[in-house]
UniProtKB/TrEMBL annotation:
Keyword Membrane: yes
One Pfam family from the record: DUF3302
Superkingdom of origin: Bacteria
UniProtKB keywords: Membrane, Transmembrane, Transmembrane helix
UniProt name for this protein: DUF3302 domain-containing protein
Organism: Photobacterium arenosum
Transmembrane regions listed in the UniProt entry: 6-25, 46-66
């Protein structure tokens, strides 16, 4: 008799833990959005409740939606674009410097070549 009541109590306990566990899991995207100060955190919270009633079908999308936003960089693309523009500017500058150095090297080689020819001719005459 005691084991019957113990099994019933255990069954109720497991059902309550699962029930509250699922509710806690559905709230994770909202907690992420709240921590990141997401501008749509209320919408994410309501969509989480809708997802709870649709067996968490929307939940992965809510997770992605919540994690895309960062307060310091917005949706995550602006900073990358700014860095790419800066790198492109630096690359263009370096290419111009390389072309300048190559032209100077070519000019130095041309100046040295007549010297080598005159030295070779003078050695050959002696």
């Amino acid at each position: 008799m005691f084991l019957d009541y113990f099994a019933l109590g255990l069954l109720i306990f497991v059902a309550l833990v699962l029930f509250y566990g699922i509710i806690a899991i559905h709230d994770i995207p909202y907690e992420i959005a709240k921590e990141r100060e997401h501008p749509h955190q209320d919408a994410i919270h309501y969509a989480g409740w809708v997802s709870l009633f649709t067996l968490h079908a929307l939940w992965p999308f809510l997770w992605i939606w919540a994690t895309l936003w960062r307060k310091e960089r917005g949706w995550g693309f602006k900073q990358v674009h700014d860095e790419q523009v800066l790198l492109q500017t630096q690359l263009t500058k370096m290419e111009m410097q390389l072309q300048l150095l190559q032209s100077e090297l070519t000019a130095l080689k041309q100046q040295r070549q007549p010297m080598n020819n005159s030295n070779n001719n003078s050695e050959g005459n002696q």
